[in-house]
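Continuing the batch. This is chain 6 of the set; chains 1 through 5 are on the previous pages. Same settings as before, nothing changed between runs. Recording input and output for traceability.
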Amino acid sequence: MMVSSNTSFNNPLNNFCIAGVNYHKSDMSIRSKFSLSESQTLLFLNEAKLNGFAGCLVLSTCNRTEIYSICPDPQKLIGMICSSTQTTMNDFLEYGYIYQGISAVEHLFNVAAGLDSQIIGDYEILAQLKQATNVARQKGCINTLMERAINYALQASKEIKTKTKLSSGIVSVSYAAIEIIKEKIKDLSDKKFLLVGAGKFGKNVAKNIKSYLPESGICFSNRTDEKARVLANIYAADFIPYENLSSACNDSDIIIVSSAAESYTILPTFFTTDKPRLILDLSVPLNVDPLVKGLPGVTLLNVDEVSVILDKTISIRQAEVPGALRIINETLDELITWCNNQLNNSFLRTVKSQLFQLNEIYFIEDPREEKVNQVVSSLAIQLKHKTNKGCQCINALGNYLQQNVDYNSEKKHRCLA
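Output for chain 6:
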């Protein structure tokens, strides 16, 4: 028999690899160094294809930069991250992490479910994961295995949201910003809001302001004026051209920044009048110069500090974690079964082809296709319960040969009779 039990039958999930940096081991200043912009993400995906990665996805948010890949060599992946972010290998070794195989897939599931979010149960990460997947798919970087793993992760996430209270309550960084505003400023009636940034995060902040602080007036500004103008129309708000950002900041009482610039966009020189101001910098990397915090009357908080107020809700959600993990484990088993079936199907096709070759060599008078199919079907059933393909294949060969010996003996007996 010519079937071998070499690495061609290894589970492809073994090469599923994640390398990244997140809030567990690094603060925002460190995460900012590893953050990848849209243009850097596209360059990274192109490089992954050139390096022969079967699949690659870049997830870069305020809480993490993670590369999901089908890659047998994690060191190559780390090297690409350091090169793309102009960081060192020592930086990554100090703050980063690597997951490989089933551990990597489990991490993907935990991220999609909100279990690995800085705010447990925060489903904003789900939309970010979907968007990252779409970008990678458009670049041809999502192969069948990665597509299937992501789909199963999204399936588990949906089931967790439906069957548990892991996402109970209105909890997100954008909502936490509202809670801080209400805590810090008791009278909002005459306060001027300025939202800098018109991306998804900025939209969420604007939506929450309109929902929970409906009497508040909002102004939008963005590096691309048209995006800010569109949001202003949606929320019946004012639009301020980006070239007037400095004067707009100086005039505002509450400034929420969620832009994605790679350097500081809100500077100390913007503020020429002294008055109480609350500035929430929800950007990664930081978009508000930290020196702004030293100005008279200014309260400046970053995304890590904003997240702290959610501790009470987090304790409630922690009780839902065991139920969420059960769903993840069940769905993960489904993915593993799918992978095994894919491997088995390829193996069964090989066995079937080689049984027909034996048939042609030794049993020319009778093709016995029906017997081949019976043996392969029996082998398929056995492989669902036992993973030793070599032993199962030998058994299948023995069964097939014995059937043919029995058949030929019966045929010979009929001829003699």
